[in-house]
């Protein structure tokens, strides 16, 4: 019997310092050799070029580059693989640890398993110029949203809502949970017939349509994604609401036709950026009438990582949401208050987003061939990894999501809201 270690065994030895605390996954090498627990999902390394990426940046970016390029894959459940890796890789500071990476690269070279240095896959983006100018924001948004409306429909389902759903019970489906979320927002905003609602970051128009149909309000929805605006207008017209739903291809900074009775901002403020957040909050404040309500629904980081992200960009930044930035809930709340709002309610929905993302992931995997046809293989692989990784991030409390209900106070301090929260409940 040969005592020569297999390629997979040599890889395991190599990754040992990165996989601190154990190797809870299977590894399969390009020659078919395999090591690790039989019941665990396998990280399949198809191409040895992945090694340079994985060893140089054993954190998210290296893994993502190898994944998007198709050099690695999973045999089994991707979410489960990431969950197992998260405990050993992502808690490690390998991304900033260049001396450690160099040592690993030398070891890899001596083991004879190191391939040549590959360029990043073409799906990776770097945004030139100053962040959060209107033109750069338009490009960043177009990168993520102008992919293909049909591709998004495969993932989001007929509701076409691209934010965390509201899962009232185990029986809910994604569509029901999305409808419940839209309705929760309308109730929190206290919408009444004849009022004017501004929906900043309106996506494919689902909230605008729901609010106009169920609450009789007039809605202006703005988005800077052309594909979204086109489909949102079509959906509003098909729902017979073209006279009450106006969809604009417009930046929130360009809205000047206040006052509105209520403003919703759902899943948009993540794109705003901490540097211009104070200006964003001030614009929404000016656009609301005194006594009017703002519902700001936004993903939050647990800690402020903006400085770290600038030095060591993440997978999400380079592939998914260029210029998207997450800050802690407290930072957002302070900025909203500083603009003059009174915060009246905060609801944390973290577990709801984990469930939503698991559903989107399942939809994508169930329609994989069609998704690849619509968006291209590289893009589809980006979305598959992003959705599984974000589900995990919510599940494990690395990020959260919160609905902040705030009012623009009356000058005399009169309270525009009921005394208890009962009115908010279904
Ligand atoms: C995650 S999507 C959420 C869409 C929708 N609110 C929903 O829940 O389905 C974010 C939205 O914010 C919009 N957005 C981002 N930056 C914007 C800006 N500067 N001005 C207007 N809309 C913006 C995008 O175009 C997109 O429609």
Automatic annotation (TrEMBL):
Question: Which family does the similarity line name?
Answer: Belongs to the CFA/CMAS family.
InterPro entries recorded: CFA/CMAS, CMAS, MeTfrase_dom, SAM-dependent_MTases_sf
Which Pfam families is this protein grouped with? CMAS
Q: Which residues form the Polyketide synthase-like methyltransferase domain?
A: 151-409
Q: Which residues cross the membrane?
A: none
Entry annotation: catalytic residues: 390
Taxonomic placement: Bacteria, Bacillati, Actinomycetota, Actinomycetes, Micromonosporales
**Tell me, what is an example of a GO biological process annotation in this record?**
methylation
**Keywords for this protein:** Lipid metabolism, Methyltransferase, S-adenosyl-L-methionine, Transferase
Please list the GO terms describing molecular function: cyclopropane-fatty-acyl-phospholipid synthase activity
Q: Which SUPFAM superfamilies does the entry link to?
A: S-adenosyl-L-methionine-dependent methyltransferases
Q: Which PANTHER family match?
A: CYCLOPROPANE-FATTY-ACYL-PHOSPHOLIPID SYNTHASE
EC primary class: transferase
Would I find Repeat among this entry's keywords? no
Q: Mind telling me what this protein is named?
A: Cyclopropane-fatty-acyl-phospholipid synthase
Assigned EC number: 2.1.1.79
């Amino acid at each position: 019997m040969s005592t020569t270690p297999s390629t997979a065994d040599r890889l395991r030895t190599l990754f040992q310092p990165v996989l601190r605390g154990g190797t809870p996954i299977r590894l399969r090498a390009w020659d078919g050799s395999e090591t690790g627990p039989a019941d665990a999902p396998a990280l399949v390394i198809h191409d040895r070029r992945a090694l340079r990426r994985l060893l140089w940046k054993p954190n998210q970016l290296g893994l993502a580059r190898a994944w998007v390029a198709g050099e690695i894959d999973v045999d089994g459940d991707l979410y489960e693989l990431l969950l197992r890796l998260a405990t050993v890789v992502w808690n490690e500071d390998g991304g900033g640890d260049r001396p450690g990476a160099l040592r690993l690269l030398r070891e890899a070279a001596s083991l004879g398993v190191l391939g040549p240095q590959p360029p990043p896959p073409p799906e990776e983006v770097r945004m030139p110029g100053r962040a959060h100018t209107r033109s750069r924001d338009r490009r960043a948004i177009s990168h993520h949203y102008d992919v293909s409306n049909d591709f998004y429909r495969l993932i989001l389902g007929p509701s076409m809502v691209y934010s965390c759903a509201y899962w009232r019970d185990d029986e809910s489906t994604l569509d029901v949970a999305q409808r419940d979320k839209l309705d929760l927002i309308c109730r929190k905003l206290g919408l009444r017939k004849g009022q004017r609602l501004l929906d900043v970051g309106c996506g494919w128009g689902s909230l605008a349509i729901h609010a106009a149909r169920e609450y009789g309000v007039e809605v202006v929805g703005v988005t800077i994604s052309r594909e979204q605006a086109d489909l949102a207008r079509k959906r509003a017209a098909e729902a017979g609401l073209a006279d009450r739903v106006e969809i604009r291809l417009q930046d929130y900074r360009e809205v000047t036709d206040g006052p509105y009775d209520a403003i919703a901002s759902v899943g948009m403020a993540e794109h705003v950026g901490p540097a211009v957040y104070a200006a964003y909050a001030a614009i929404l404040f000016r656009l609301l009438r005194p006594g009017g309500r703002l519902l700001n629904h936004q993903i939050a980081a647990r800690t402020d990582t903006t400085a770290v992200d600038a030095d060591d960009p993440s997978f999400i930044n380079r592939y998914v949401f260029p210029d998207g930035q997450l800050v802690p809930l407290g930072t957002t709340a302070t900025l909203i208050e500083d603009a003059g709002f009174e915060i009246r309610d905060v609801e944390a929905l973290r577990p709801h987003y984990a469930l939503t993302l698991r559903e989107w992931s399942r939809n994508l995997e169930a329609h994989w061939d069609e998704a690849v046809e619509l968006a291209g293989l590289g893009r589809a692989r980006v979305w598959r990894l992003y959705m599984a990784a974000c589900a995990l991030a919510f599940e494990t409390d690395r990020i959260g999501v919160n609905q902040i209900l705030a009012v623009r106070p009356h000058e005399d301090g009169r309270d525009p809201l009921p005394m208890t929260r009962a009115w908010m409940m279904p």
